[in-house]
Amino acid sequence: MKTSKYTAALTLAVCGALAGTAVADEKWDMPMAYADSNYHTQNGKLFAEAVNIATGGDLEIVVHGGGSLFKGGDIKRAVQTGQAQIGERLLSAHQNEVAMFGFDSVPFLATSFEASEKLWQAARPAIEKLLAEQNLVLLYSVPWPPQGLYFNKPVDDVDDMRGVKFRSYNSATARLAELTGMVPTQIEAAEITQAFATGVVESMVSSGSTGYDRKLWEHVSHFYEVNAWLPRNYVFVHADAWEDLDEDTQNIVRGAALLAEKAGTAKAQQLSDWYVAQLAANGMKTQTASRQLRNSLEKVGETMTREWLDKAGAAGRAVVEDYQSM
What we know:
By secondary structure, this protein is of the alpha/beta class. The protein has ten helices and eleven strands.
């Protein structure tokens, strides 16, 4: 969706809220971990522009992409401590804090955009509550395309994965590596290209989006579609900064967030197959995982699911039950 259409739609939707509204000038810094060309960052910029326009410039949100203001791993803490007022982060990156944050990275629980949306609706109240306890306010969340596996060799079963140096981005991906005999190393998105170029890692599980953004065809030869899960990014605000806004301005931001979630999700769906096609067009061999490999991965997924449910407890089981009942 073009910027003009997005902002025009929001302005029409919230212009009534602006009548008679006067708010103090505010400027919010919004760190984002991914490259400016990535659709998450582009969506964040559209969201920020919509807020800027709809508030008549009284609330200005300045997006800092590519980890330029804070690295990915530092963004949540920066917002919690008030160094930035708003930010975006991979939700499951906080799974080590509270298991519930990893609901979207339970292998093979939700493997399509439709399923991901249902799982998000089931989990959202619990996530909002957790964030509120950490002095944060949830605004919106957008999924990544389904996760696949990148290797620099043919892989037909998990035996072919043993000993491979693997880029992890959360505890679920680190555990996946451990259970398949790979060697995990935590690497933030902005550092992926260098990590592959220098041999620090030689494999990862991620979407076609990440492979395209980082030109992974220069370092690996194969991409296997396994649709393991669809992780989500989320945008959140420091609660004190949120409370400093009057009700009308909060409503404007909420309206922009609603549009951003819908627009970002639609963009992810639109680009999903295109990303994989671009990997192939640049020389990477893209294919669906063999039945043998998928069967092995599903067994690993069963183990990881049991482990996650044990850690997430009753709250996690309630989310899964609500999702499966939809």
